Design the sequence.
């Protein structure tokens, strides 16, 4: 059985991982993305948005859709704590999520 991979946050550090989630799923792992918002604004496009080259909408990444299209799960929530000894992530709403690997 594969491992539970939990990605906390939908920021720039995880962007390339989001694009490759299907490869984790294909190997039998269970990736899960936790983020407060289903969208991420790509800061690298900020100067282009400010100068009018791009619209604000063009700089947004639909992380929920990107995640689900690649066979992974998306949970909207805020991580309040991580217990590495128990392998658990605690969300602000009281949800507990087990993991093998967390980033």
Sequence:
């Amino acid at each position: 059985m594969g491992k539970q991979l939990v990605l906390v946050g939908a920021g720039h550090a995880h962007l390339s991982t989001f694009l490759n989630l299907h490869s984790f799923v294909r190997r039998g792992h269970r990736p899960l993305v936790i983020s407060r918002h289903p969208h991420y604004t790509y800061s690298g496009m900020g100067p282009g948005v400010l100068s009018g080259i791009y619209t604000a909408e063009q700089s947004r990444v639909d992380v929920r859709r990107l995640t689900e299209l690649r066979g992974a799960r998306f949970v909207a929530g805020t991580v309040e704590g991580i217990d590495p000894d128990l392998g658990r992530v605690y969300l602000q709403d009281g949800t507990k999520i087990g993991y093998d690997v967390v980033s």
